[in-house]
Amino acid sequence: MAWRGVARQGLARPGLARPGEARQGPQQQSSSGIGRGGARLGRAGRGRGCYDKEKIMAKLATVKLAELVLDWNLYPRHEVDGFQVARLTEAIEAGEDLPPMIVDEKSLRIVDGFHRYHAFLRAKADEVAVEMQRFRSEADVFMHAVALNARHGVPLTPQDQARVLLLGQRLDITRERLAEALAMRPLKVEKIERKLGKLRRGGPLYLKPAIRHYAGREVPKAVVDISEGLGGNTAEFYIRQLLMLLRSGGLNMTEEASGLLDQLAKAIGELKVAA
Questions:
Q1: Which of 10, 69, 173, 251 sees the fewest Cβ atoms within 10 Å?
Q2: Are the beta carbons of 144 and 47 closer than 8 angstroms?
Q3: Calpha distance 178→233 (Å, rounded)
Q4: Distance (Å, rounded) from C-alpha 139 to C-alpha 171?
Q5: What confidence tens digit (pLDDT) does each residue in 242-255 have?
Q6: Helix axes 186-193, 175-182, angle to 10 degrees
Q7: Nearest to 107 by CA among 141, 84, 78, 77
Q8: To the nearest whole number, what is the mean pLDDT of the chain?
Q9: Does an H or E element contain 258, and which?
Q10: CB–CB of 185/195 below 8 Å?
Q11: How much is the pLDDT for 210?
């Protein structure tokens, strides 16, 4: 059964790892090799156009799940999708075959298969099938991860695409190569770059719609600090939503909602004074 991504439905569920430092998976105990939830050999999809397959040495192997390493500094996505993990976990527990994860032979870092890793972890798998590959550089590992994630599984979001550009810049990868890995035209990549803001220290910052007016400008630290918690729409969208609820009488006036409205009124008053 071919497993492909479905439309994104919300953020990763609590308990899933988020981008940060590379880490090794926790040890799973099993008394009998590959038990329920263990991986079976399958066929892994590959991206096209970015790599000469004959130059990438690959072999199938079975490894302990706990030996695999998650390196978030080379992961193209900004988070793991909890819905996809739950979906894959259910498939594993139903006895379905999933393609082997792609792993860097030297470091045992997962190049493609973060969602499958978390699904196997939930299913309490002890050993999993992987496809070991050898890469010439960190840039090659990253480019291969991007090419695969861009062509199968959960579609990359605009924020994921921006993350790819930011990580690619740190690895000195050209815009043209990043566009090829992302399966998009260089002009589209340039358009995404224009939506990036600037940090006082460090590289560019992906700007969500509510703060996109900072494009090309330095983003204040206070705005940077709250950017991760912002939703995917403009500020005007959320204001209109609140106004519709207030004017229709449809807002559930809980104690928390009442307190938040008081904070909103105070913030608006301070904003007017400052203006």
A1: 10
A2: yes
A3: 26
A4: 6
A5: 999 999 999 999 99
A6: 110
A7: 141
A8: 79
A9: helix 255-274
A10: no
A11: 84
